[in-house]
Amino acid sequence: MPRSEWPPLVRERPDATARPSTTLPAVEDRLAGFQRWFGERALVNHMDVDRVPLHGMTGWLGEPGTGNLCHRSGRFYSIEGLQVQTDREWHPQWTQPVIVQPETGVLGMLVKEEGGTLHCLMQAKVEPGNMGGLQLSPTVQATRSNLTGVHGGRAVKYVEYFTDAGAGHGRVVADSLQSEQGSWFLGKRNRNIIVQVFDEIPVEDDFRWLTLDEIGELLRWDNLVNMDSRTVLSCLPPALVARAREGTQSPDDDFGAAVRASFAGVGRPVVTSDEVLSRLTDVRMRQRLVTRRVPLDRVRDDGWQVSEDEIARPDGKFFRIIGVEVRAGRREVASWAQPLLAPTGQGTVTLVVRRLGDVLHALVRCRAEAGTLNVAELGPTVQHLAANYADLPEAGRPPELEQLVPGKVLTRFDAVHSEEGGRFHHAVNRYRVVEAIDGELLDPPADFMWVTLAQLAELLRHSNYLNVELRSLIACLHTL
């Protein structure tokens, strides 16, 4: 995947609001070096991915009696049916395919402070479903099957820093189990862990130390910093980020200062942290969500078409299940086959922020999804693929940005990012942070609330409070 043209160091969309550049000359110089390194790694880390029929995938089979797509080893993951019952008026029950991967993986990032600057050890890694091929992943991105060697491949590099984090390899600064996409996975969680090292460690060819400011600029480039990196970056303690970025921000960057103050807990939130937890708990108790694993063959009852080539809906909504064969010379295993979930379009993920009482707050939603472990988690203000709901009555559609914030907004962050390429094929969302600056402050709907960034960061120390889309936006906010 040689990238013939790189975007400018600071991306801008036509509707983006101009703000002072935070790209220091030293960052620009180092990013030029990054581009050379990344181009070299792209030439080496090539991957050939070909579509194949679902029932032609080497090592996979359709389970007799259920139709579930399973690996012959009984490991990795499976594609099964999920029957869902809710109390929604517009669509109270349905059956869908779902990815079942009960094992917990490790998403680990090594960090170090050098010259008062925080550096993160990033990996250039390609996944079969990636948009654009090579992307930046955390130091370790591994399933339990990778860690235990069930695939018979090469060992995962640097994994000992995270599996034996207390054995003198460094200091753990963040460690929690976090969810993945609740509409596509059933109860999937990964260990998100950040370890600070103090001794020099050898850096392999596919790895590179990048400062947080450099990562911040790279986050503005489409489809470069992968989902696993973003979720781990969101778990960075705000105090560590503040110390690492001290003196690197422009004094004219009023919004950046408001972000940092909100992360630092300066000022009074409009709702207490106890009330945030109470509201989320109330949604988890009040909202009916009953799920049951059923044979994959049962999805036909809800209009899904199951063929040799794919599983899809005739109306083209939501997603398809496809099969691929993969050849990759530099991965733990050189070749394999697998099913992937392929969304049918680009989604929209937007977080609205506003200064309330001189404190920057974010408007988050208690969002229930079929595969979420605890019914609901906090999600961004807007999260949907609009075409999936176009034919529903207005009461059944998710609220749009204009309905929630009728006044003027300024775009503070805007980029298209890929979701996890190891299970999804070309799954992308447009991620935006917009600041509401005028207009009437409407009372948000019952499942929405205004919270500070410090309150969100505190919840990230624990499991199953923020969904993966909101965590991606938290990562982006850490670098503004």
Describe the structure.
The chain is an alpha+beta fold and 480 residues long. The protein contains eleven helices and 24 strands. Strands 6, 7, 8, 9, 10, 11 and 12 form a seven-stranded mixed sheet that branches. Strands 18, 19, 20, 21, 22, 23 and 24 form a seven-stranded mixed sheet that branches. Strand 15 and strand 16 form a beta hairpin. It is globular, with a radius of gyration of 22 Å. The two termini are 29 Å apart.
Find the structural class using helix and strand composition: alpha+beta
Number of helices: 11
> How would you sum up the global shape?
globular
Largest sheet: 7 strands, mixed
List keywords for this structure.
seven-stranded mixed sheet; globular; 24 strands; disordered N terminus; alpha+beta; about 475 residues
Short description:
With 480 residues, the chain is an alpha+beta fold.
Structural topology:
Elements: H1 25-44, E1 48-52, E2 60-62, E3 69-71, E4 78-86, E5 93-100, E6 105-114, E7 117-126, E8 134-137, E9 140-142, H2 144-148, H3 160-163, E10 171-179, E11 189-196, E12 207-211, H4 212-218, H5 227-234, H6 238-245, H7 254-264, H8 273-286, E13 289-294, E14 305-306, E15 310-312, E16 319-327, E17 335-343, E18 347-356, E19 359-368, E20 376-379, E21 382-384, H9 401-404, E22 409-418, E23 428-436, E24 448-452, H10 453-459, H11 468-478
Parallel strand pairs: 6-11, 18-23
Antiparallel strand pairs: 1-16, 2-3, 3-4, 4-5, 4-13, 6-7, 6-9, 7-8, 7-12, 10-11, 14-15, 15-16, 16-17, 18-19, 18-21, 19-20, 19-24, 22-23
Helix pairs in contact: 5-11, 7-10
